[in-house]
Amino acid sequence: MLSSHLLPQIGSYVNGRWRTNATGETLPVYNPATGEILAEINSLGGKETTEAVESGAVAMRRPSSPDQRRNWLRTLAAEMLTNRDELGRIITLEQGKPLAEGVAEVDYAASYFTYFADQLAALEPLPLAEHARNCDWTVMHRPAGVAGVITPWNFPLAMLTKKLGAAIGAGCAVVAKPSELTPLSSIALWTLVERLDMPPGLLNLVVGEPIPIGTVLCQHPAIRVLSFTGSTETGRILIQETAKYVKRLALELGGNAPFVVFDDADVGNAVEALVANKFRAGGQTCVCANRVYVQQQVAGAFVDALAQRVARLRVGNGIEPDTDIGPLINRAAFDKVDRHVRDAIAKGAKRIVGHDPERPKHEWGGYYPATLLTGITPEMELCQEETFGPVISLSEFSDEEAVIDACNSTIYGLAAYVFTRDQARAQRLISRLAFGHVGLNTGTGPSAHAPFGGMKQSGFGREGGLEGLLEFCEVQTVAAASTA
Ligand code: ADP
Asked: Whose C-alpha lies nearest to ligand 1, atom 21?
């Protein structure tokens, strides 16, 4: 069992207090590196979620001032950084990623609180210069209402703070549901929330099975905005479930990122960028390269350099200092990666690095070796779906036009990466890539100051940037009869 000074209570937080469910139902949280049960958490359902939503609606009757909200955001960011090592350890224990990545996630997560604290001036009333119809016109940004927030397990803290920071900044109350696989870092964050001088009901955390909680978040009339990060399948369910109630949705869904390397690219830089991008969180990120396209003339040199680099990566328990890649989150994740690799090899792909992994003996997870496959063709499963594991799938291309078509030949449109020294080509290509985030000569993912989100079936709405803050605001236009 996990013991931490940030987890004096392990449960849900509703209406300003730690809340348990009288039925005594629990859900176990596993360490994916060892199979150990870290905690058995009392599991809340629809009744307590309704209570949380209604306490949020009550809390919003007395709006907070921008100064209060700025102060809450800054205090939370500072507290997170004071506790970064312990928060990072909790992330690693429940999620599996290497400790350095767990700690880096804390910095990244806190940066959203800091960024939104700095942006609140953008929500001040905006008087318009025109005086049409003999009126003074002012644009107001009102909090949208109680916000439902549903987050995944790959960045258990950062995916939460992106939404939570914007919701606090906008003045919304929140009911947050973390992934049932990784709720402990969210609970630790609420230990810090509890210390704030904040009205009860403003920030609620509900831990439990997805459907009873999700149903209330979709159906309760006080929830006016639902912000979700997760799979496209679940995103479609949320669209259907909320349609009847006409709620605002912000959906950050799956990806199938292309990573394109042209002949004129700096090969060393492209290799390093791919390794950093691909193996973060063991390849379990929605922005990681899923399809690597390398132009023929440089393909040999690129594969040789990449193979040497990938072969050095060490797979192991994330808590150990020399681990580069942790375990996959659970057995289902392992089985999917394994299925994709077997399918590709059966259809003619070549395994350059990696070996047949030992099948996990338990339900809780499994280690997948860092793998490099070449000779990938479009009909292979790993080209069509997100693999979500430490596997690089590489194919060669000759022609710019063909590679644009290949990149866009997916229902997804989240992230893409282009490596070339030719600026004209880069701009030509990027303008035709239907992806919400494009890295040029870098494999970097999102940052708090810039809007991030998907095109096509990767979702809609943005996180980070001013756009991320506005997801939680309603625009109200006030036309006041001119007194002049
Ligand atoms: P993944 O496949 O990455 O686990 P999911 O979409 O299943 O992605 O999960 C992302 C988040 O959505 C998690 O918090 C999960 O509990 C939640 N979730 C899954 N199914 C539903 C649902 N039907 N309604 C609401 N939330 C759900």
From this structure: 210
